[in-house]
Specification:
mainly beta; five-stranded antiparallel β-sheet; 30 strands
Length: about 475
């Protein structure tokens, strides 16, 4: 059984194995089913396993399109996208298993109710490898649907509409390549609209003049980009792995702005060629010449003041060496300047964990790509998992949870193990316990609900028995104040 690859030389190891790989049991406290062996009272904070299986490699259970059911569940997958809008979570695509447990790119859209813990198959196919149905540019239609893909960028606008850009997958002709199509989904009408970009794969970037918007401009096809939404409804897109201005594939560090009102893209910052090292400047000091190196599958978020933040990814530091990064950057959309905040300008750094629960200026997560990121009401970042370097320098699937305080500029190791490739401890479904922890994983889908809880779905990693493959477990983390 074959699986789509990400075509990155630096991504090695077990992350996309087609066959299951057994490892030794790593913890004597793992439950073997849904039951909790200890009637421990629920804790005020921590992880709760909410949905999905404790066993990796699950086929999707689709049920009837449009009908919620307790037995429905998306198949195991990585590099899907998730949103939270109007009280419900949404999940689209990725690389993983369909209803027949065939592996490939997916284009299914799911809706999840955190209250009922029920999934609804809303749109797309229950089979892998579906081509896109684009319709007419700018016109919504029931037959429209993006092609199957993994690693797109996504966001939710002020009206609750779901947006999707690019990824790697199938175009309108069924060809597989890097995509640069932009889609909008109306959750009320249940219709997709093709907004911008091409219906064909492997389109190079059309950059135009830096700082000048144009309807002719468009980012090249890519996966693993980061997207931010600003206070005015504009979307900012950074990096990813894809095609530069001359159609050559590699890691990118271009920053784009999209105005959904006039439909114009603007190339704002970075270079129009692949594999460019970063210019770091002085830590803590913004400068017009600063910019992160080319990278993909970074973690990104927007703070309360409207600044954009970027952590790690797979790509380039200040040199031409390719690897995992642990640098933290801040971008100010008002001044158009980047600031290097924390971490190293070199790749493949080991994590420095310190004492669990204790912030320190010397603490820092290791080089990491494919982590989940959320931000709390006080502006602190939470970072979970990813493929990176643990405290011993081992590259693997992480399940450590970190908190970053931007005021103190300190990291705190909050939960999880500082050793990679650990299996999950699930406990009882729906019960929050300090002993619960998702297994080490990378490229999980993530969203944050209206109450500020952190959610993580699937990815590639370790289940309750230490088996590594695609996962379909859904976890909720409630923070300690």
């Amino acid at each position: 059984m074959s699986f789509p690859k990400l075509d990155r030389k630096w991504k090695a190891g077990p992350a996309l194995l087609a066959a299951l790989m057994m490892t030794a049991m790593m913890s004597a406290c793992v439950t073997s089913g849904d039951g909790d062996p200890d009637p421990e009272p629920e804790s005020a904070y921590g992880w709760a396993w909410e949905s999905g299986s404790i066993t990796a490699g699950q086929a999707g259970i689709y049920g009837t399109k449009g009908t919620a059911s307790a037995s429905n569940a998306p198949g195991s997958r990585e590099l899907a996208q998730a949103w939270f809008s109007s009280g419900s979570a949404w999940l689209f695509g990725g690389s993983g298993y369909d209803a027949a447990r065939s592996g490939g790119y997916l284009n299914d859209l799911w809706k999840y109710s955190p209250t009922s813990r029920e999934w609804t198959w809303v749109s797309g196919s229950n089979s892998v490898s579906q081509r896109g149905s684009y319709g007419a540019l700018g016109i919504p239609a029931p037959a429209n649907v993006p092609g199957a893909r993994s690693g797109p960028a996504s966001w939710v606008d002020a009206n609750g509409a779901l947006w999707l850009f690019g990824g790697r997958g199938h175009d309108e002709g069924g060809n597989i390549g890097y995509l640069n199509d932009l889609w909008k989904f109306d959750a009320a009408a249940l219709q997709w609209t093709w907004i911008s970009g091409s219906n064909a794969d492997d389109r190079p970037g059309l950059y135009g003049t830096k700082g000048t918007p144009s309807t002719a401009n468009i980012p090249g096809g890519r996966l693993g980009a980061v997207a931010w939404l600003d206070a005015n409804g504009n979307v900012w897109l950074f990096g990813g792995y894809g095609l530069d201005a001359v159609g050559s594939a590699g890691d990118l560090n271009d920053l784009w702005k999209f105005d959904p009102v006039n439909g114009e893209w603007t190339w704002v910052s970075g270079e129009d060629l692949k594999n460019v090292p970063g210019v770091y400047g002085t830590k803590g000091t913004p400068a017009p010449g600063n910019f992160p190196g080319a990278r993909d599958t970074s973690a990104g978020w927007r703070d309360a003041s409207g600044k954009f933040w970027l952590f790690g990814g797979g790509g380039f530091g200040s040199t031409a060496s390719l690897g995992q990064l642990n640098d933290l950057w801040k971008f100010d959309p008002a001044t158009l300047q980047w600031t290097w905040i924390s971490g190293s300008d070199s790749v493949n750094q080991s994590g420095v964990y310190g004492t669990q629960g204790t912030p320190s200026a010397s603490n820092i997560p290791g080089g990491n790509c494919g982590a989940n990121a959320w931000i709390d009401s006080t502006g602190r970042l939470y970072l979970f998992g990813g493929r990176g370097y643990d405290a011993t320098g081992l590259l693997g699937a992480l399940h450590d949870l970190w908190r970053f305080d931007p005021t103190a500029v300190t990291w705190t190791w909050v939960a999880g193990d500082k050793t990679a490739n650990r299996q999950g401890v699930y406990g009882t479904k729906g019960k929050r316990l300090l002993t619960n922890i998702p297994g080490g994983r990378e490229y999980a889908a993530t969203f944050q609900d209206a109450s500020g809880n952190l959610w993580s779905f699937g990815g590639t990693g370790y289940d309750s028995g230490g088996v590594t493959n695609y996962l379909n477990d859904l976890w909720k983390y409630t923070r300690q104040n």
